[in-house]
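Wait, can you check?
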Amino acid sequence: MNKRNAYILMMLLIPTVVFADKVKVRVFSTANIAYTKISFENSTYSLLGDNVDTIAANLTKGDFVELTPFAKEVVVSVNGEKRGNFESVSFVTNQDDAYLYISPKGYKQRSYEDDLHVTALNSKHLQLINNVEFEKYVAGVAQSEIYGKHADIFRVQAIISRTWAMRNMEKHKADGYNFCDNVHCQAYYNRCIREDIKLAAQSSVNEVLVDADGNLIETPFHSNSGGQTANSEDVWKSEIEYLRSVKDTFSYGMKQSVWTKEFSTDKWLNYFAKNHKLNINDESVRNELLNFTQDERKAKIMGVPLTTIRKDWNLKSTFFSVVYYGDKVVLEGKGYGHGVGLSQEGAIRMVELGVPYKDILVHYYTGARVVRLGAEAEMQEPMLLASATTEGNVDDDFTNDVMNMITMATEPVGVAVEDEKKKETKTVVEAENSNKSKRSSDLASRMLNTKNQLAEESSKNNNVDNENDWVYEW
């Protein structure tokens, strides 16, 4: 056995219990909390002061605790009665399904599972740390980060979120916790309350993405690629082998797929003159700035990084072209987010079209593989890629349909979109007029339903401004 295979095997045989440990997540991490109320529902908690003294036991439905900061201590009141000041307070439980409600003044209420640790950041603000089982955290992230109805949408999100968390366990080590709850780490805006998402996350327990050497990979994701993902070095300088630009026609037609923004011509040109020292009186410079196009993603315009322009102009993405109308310019953009790695809306559409979750992941993370820690059998290649040359398979029609979808992602965007529409129509007609296999028929139905759903969503979401507009708010 060579060194590479030995390493992969060792990694796959790691006991699964290692990843059942709790993680510490700072919740309400961007909020300035001067007061919060903690309450309970069908759970029993004990309240400890400074991890030693029992302030209150058997707190349950009907009980409430109020917390405020004072001189770097936490002032505690239980059911309206003051109990003292403590350097820290902890809500702990022995129940597997326990959760509590957090209701800070000025913010929407959230609920979190397992334990809660509270300290005073200073004399004005509290810090809240949810000490939660790792897989419960993964399910909460999946619920917060993506929308949809199909289980594999959340399975995909759970796998990339789990992989990221395992790789970045010490992200906030210096701060005394593992992760924050916003996009600096991963959105975690509530305990997972949807049973379908819980089941989807549980079905993927210990599934992660690894590179060719068996190492956990970075798994960045974004809302919508606009039809093509970006190379890592075009956004973050470092070239990473599995974060390569790929065609992504699946992101078309989704609610974050296109956008526009308008500026005066003078404002647009003066920005480059003032901020980037370009000679806008030079005809060739003006022509490039006023007629810049991106049929495929580029990294710069006249030497200026598009990432800088996106930040300075608050754009949804760097994937835009400039249309010149005399006294104004219009940026016609595609997609939403940095563009590296997985496109969430592209993944949603692929699931709707019946593409297996492993093929979705390896489509966006070039050369990566999905493995299940502790299960050597999971080292096989994704089902479709491995079976593409198999003859006589009863599901050949289904396999060919999906393989053709993957192939479309390498074609010019306009052609691919048109071909996909023709394929959807053809598949539906064939399913209605012939007795094809059950799975082919199911695929046709899903394609038609997806097309109708996308049309409906598009009509309802013409003015979406929030990159994470599907993130759950509580």
